[in-house]
Amino acid sequence: MATVHLRIGDLVWGKLGRYPPWPGKVVSPPKDLKKPRGKKCFFVKFFGTEDHAWIKVEQLKPYHPHKEEMIKINKGKRFQQAVDAVEEFLKKGKGKEQSTDSKGRKAPAKPMKIIGEDDEDPFKAGSSDKELTDSDPEPSSAQRLVAGTVSGFKWESSPASSMEPISKRLKIVEEDTGSTSIQAADSTALNGSITPTDKRIGFLGLGLMGSGVVSNLLKMGHVVTVWNRTAEKCDLFVQEGARLGRTPAEVVSMCDITFSCVSDPKAARDLVLGPSGVLQGIRPGKCYVEMSTIDHETVTELSQVITSRGGRFLEAPVSGSQQVSNEGMLVIIAAGDRSVYEDCSSCFQAMGKTSFFLVGEVGNAARMMLILNMVQGSFMATIAEGLTLAQATGQSQQTFLDILCQGQMASSFVDQKCQNILQGNFKPDYYLKHIQKDLRLAISMGDSVNHPTPMAATANEVYKRAKALDQSDNDMSAVYRAYIH
Questions:
Q1: Which residues of 21-40 are buried (b: 16+ CB within 10 A; e: fewer)?
Q2: How far apart are CA 148 and CA 30, in angstroms?
Q3: Half-sphere exposure of 457 (CA within 13 A, CB side)
């Protein structure tokens, strides 16, 4: 295979897995970031996002020769914004990329070649970090990488798609201070496919989140046994190849690793401690993974009773929604038995774009998850407040949304939730009653350490008002209705 030469800063089209090509630029990786083993690839910064990823050489094409071809086959607002960012970059830099050192002196671009199977690995000798120029369309996230993590993104497959970050497996950093460290794991979206574990998987709870998780586990070839309190929900998954468990205890006894994802602390306790519950099926070596969003006291209690029977325990609550779960793009936050986390690797890749292992005691993942949902719930209440205030003062709600989505707070979350509000569509993607539960638990957690949570407390009252208006089983965006009644 003949070699093709590129230079650091050259524009390219990069293709990731099954997703269409996206415009990017070859850049030097951070000096402490190693190239993935066994892959001949380059580090690419993508336009229209702040994301970077290692891309295999066969998935890279020069930008200009393939521009017209790519524009014809790819559509969508975000794709066009990315192409516009490339053109703006070319206009400002006149097509000549330059870099500067910390003192502002020009540094020459470094040559890099795409190599064949018999060529020497150009990354073998290592490469130094390179700052990007002020003419870049946006700040580089490579300069903000922590503990060796790096993100790519979910490619846009249709005009309605949203850009989502994905992360690669890199390394874990153990801190002497005892503070929490994280590890990002390989994502299905990045790899395109995975090798399923040969362990037998059980799953308890087929709600909004659990249904998407089980569907993706089955699609990726895992052997899954399911149980749900309402048995009829299991039928579809049995048709897709899942096995049926009659009780939680039976599922645990049949499986090597059993996941659970239920609504609240009471449901999580009942599942483990109740009649024919998980505890009755636990034997030495059996793994139990609690994915519900619950308080750290409950998850600690469950860990203690599971391990007292010789079981192995991992907490792994998930951040996302029904749509995100269906797409296999959840964020998993885990803590507990590290060996169980590693055993769950292929499962986490099937269900999520990223998983984090939090070093420290069981309960850390529960704490982190509640903090994240506290912020999200408070933000949603504020967005609803802004929309209703716009209406009350004679402003166009659609114009408010259009402006918001062009600013620094732009996100797929804001766009989706606001569009749902304007369309009066409150079909649940994340139940309002569940986000209110998460706010309540987060406030209680703050009380336990004497930390003020005034924003969350105020938002909680608004959600309670929405629940009083029979919005509990609607989407969290139905908090909007608390402001108009």
A1: bbbbbbbbbbeebebeeeeb
A2: 9
A3: 9
The rounded distance, in Å, linking the Cα atoms of 287 and 258 is 6
Q: Rounded to the nearest 10 degrees, what angle do helices 364-392 and 454-468 cross at?
A: 70
Q: What is the pLDDT of residues 434-475, one digit of tens each?
A: 999 999 999 999 999 999 999 999 999 999 999 999 999 999
Containing 84, the helix (H) or strand (E) segment is helix 77-93
Q: For 410-425, what is the mean pLDDT?
A: 93
Torsion of CA 18, 19, 24, 28, to 10 degrees: -40
pLDDT digits (tens, 9 = 90+) for 213-257: 999 999 999 999 999 999 999 999 999 999 999 999 999 999 999
What is the C-alpha separation between 217 and 211, in angstroms, rounded? 10
User: Which band of pLDDT confidence, cut at 50, 70 and 90, is reported for residue 50?
Assistant: low
Q: 3-state class of 243 per DSSP? A: strand
* 3-state secondary structure (DSSP) of residue 71: helix
> Measured between alpha carbons, how far is 294 from 273 in angstroms, rounded to an integer?
16
**At a CB cut-off of 8 Å and minimum separation 6, what does 272 contact?**
248, 278, 279, 288, 302, 305, 306
Rounded Cα distance between 50 and 67, Å, is 21
Scanning 424-471, the segments in alpha helix (DSSP H) are 432-448, 454-468
Q: Work out the average pLDDT over 354-375.
A: 96
Residue 195 pLDDT exceeds 50: yes
The CA distances from residue 77 to 69, 83, 364, 420, in Å, are 17, 10, 39, 19
| 229 and 271 Cβ atoms separated by less than 8 Å | no
The pair of structure tokens assigned to 142 is 């490579």
**Looking up tokens 């130094």, which residue turns up?**
128
> Can you give the pLDDT at residue 39?
63
Query: Tens of pLDDT along 4-21?
Result: 566 788 899 888 765 678
Going by the DSSP 8-state scheme, the letter that residue 21 receives in this structure is: P
Average pLDDT rounded to a whole number, residues 117-126: 34
* Residue closest to 29 by CA, chosen among 59, 3, 4, 53: 53
Kindly give the pairing relationship between strand 257-260 and strand 243-244. unpaired
Give 170's contacts (C-beta < 8 A, 6+ positions apart). Answer: 33, 34, 147, 148, 149, 150, 183, 184
Average pLDDT of the chain, as a whole number: 80
Residue 326 has pLDDT above 80, yes or no: yes
Of 83-87, 213-217, 269-273, least confident by mean pLDDT is: 83-87
Cα–Cα distance for residue pair 66/323, rounded to 1 Å: 33
Give the containing element (helix H, strand E) for 7. Answer: strand 4-7
Residue type, 283: R
